[in-house]
Design a protein that fits this description.
Elements: H1 3-25, H2 29-50, H3 55-64, H4 67-85, H5 89-100, H6 108-124
Helix pairs in contact: 1-2
Length: 125
Amino acid sequence: MNLYTALTFIICLSAGFAFINQRFMKLPFVIGLFFLSTILSLLVITSKYWLDIPAEQIKTYIERAKIDEIILDVLLGFLLFAGALHTNWNNLQTTNQAYSHFRHRRSPGLYDDHCRFVLRTDAAI
């Protein structure tokens, strides 16, 4: 199975989960997808106990797939673009004014430690 086939399978599985959620469960979109994918993951993990499948071969295949690189290098750009398409710019402009007047009530020690940590991290880069 190459990368194209794997991505197509994941997208179709996600669309199927979204349909099941919308039609039968009626949970919010992200919660429904998370719930169904968690159930599928539990079924796959426990399948080695009740099915005769080569679990070690599947584990090796998933480890070789380098999913972290696929998500960060390929899918993240699409997800950020899709998120930007759903932004209501008029609503964002009004909420930005509300956030600019918002004051966060933390103790000065915690806030200063956080700022120093960020500055140290930026200087190291």
